[in-house]
Amino acid sequence: MKRILFIFFFIVAAISLSAQCTLKNTAFKAGEQISYNLYFNWKFVWYKVGTANMSVSNSKYKGRDALKCVLLSKSNGKLDRHFYMRDTLLSYVTPQLVPLYYRKGAHEGKRYTVDEVWYDYPDDKCHAKMRRLNNDKTVTNNDDTRSECIFDMISLFLRARNFISNKWQPGHVIKVPYASGRGVKSGLITYKGTEKVKADNGIHYNCLKLDFAQWNSKKKKYDRIATFFITNDSRHIPVRLDFNLRFGSAKAFLTSMKGI
To answer: How far apart are CA 230 and CA 208, in angstroms?
Structure first.
C-alpha cells in the first residue's frame, strides 16, 4: 500500500510540476512532414546547397506518450566538396509541448559535436541536465534549474507555432531561456509584423515574421541568429527560415508538405 501511495503522489507531483510549461497544441499533429531547399550566401550570390526535412510523429519517451520531432539537414554533392554538412536535431515533448529530451548531432566540415539535454521538473521548477561531446572527444557537462520553463531550439520552435498573435503589435517581445549542451542562454523572440513570402513550391504565403536572438555575454547585447516566417493562420507552417551562421548566411525555403 505504501508503495502504491508513493507512486500515486509521485505521478501527481510530476503532473503539477510540469504544468507551468504546458501549452495547448493546435498548430500541428503527428504525421506532419515539411521539406525545404537550403541556400547559402557566397560573395553576394545565393547557391542551393542542400535540403532539410522536418517530421512529427507519435512516440514514447521513458514509457510516457510523447511527440517526436526530427529535423534533418544535409548538404548536396556540390557543397560536400567544400563543406560537408549533416545535422540531425531530435526533440521529445509531451502532447502539451513540455520538453522531455533534446539531441543535436552536428557534422559540419571536419567538426563533429553532439549536444544533449534531459529535462525533469523537481520542486515546481525546471531542471535541465546538459551534455556536450566536443570535437576533440572531450565531454562537457552542465546543470541548470530555474523557476521558468527551459526550452531547446526544437521545443521552442514547436511552441512558437502555437503562439496566439492576433493581439500582437510589431516589436512585441517574448523572453525565453533555452538550452544546448553548453548551458542555458537567454533568448528573445521579437514579432516583426507580417510579410508575404514566396516558397520554393511557387506559392506566396502571408506570414508572421519572428526574429530569434540570443544574449552575447561578451558584447553585452542580444545577437540575432535566426528569422522565421510562419503562415498567418492557426497552423503557423514554417515557410522560410533565415540563419546567421559562423561561416555566413543561410536560408531555407519550403518545397512541399503533407500531413498538415
So the answer is: 5
What string of H, E and C letters represents the secondary structure of 64-116? EEEEEEEEEEEECHHHHCCCCEEEEEEEEECCCCCEEEEEEEEEECCEEEEEE
Averaged pLDDT of the chain = 84
Grid cell locating 38: 537550403
Give start and end residues of each alpha helix (H) in the chain: 2-18, 77-80, 153-160
Block residue for cell numbers 510540476 = 17
In this predicted model, which residue has the larger pLDDT, 163 or 65? 65
Interval 134-179: pLDDT, tens: 988 899 999 999 988 999 989 988 988 888 777 889 999 988 888 8
Cβ atoms 181, 142 nearer than 8 A = yes
- CB burial class (10 A; 0-12, 13-18, 19+) of residue 166? exposed
C-alpha–C-alpha distance, residues 42 and 19, integer Å: 46
Query: Is the pTM here over 0.85, yes or no?
Result: no
Q: Is the pLDDT of residue 12 over 70?
A: no
| Cell digits of residue 147 | 523557476
Find out whether 106 and 87 touch, Cβ atoms under 8 Å.
yes
In whole angstroms, give the CA distance from residue 135 to residue 39.
Answer: 25
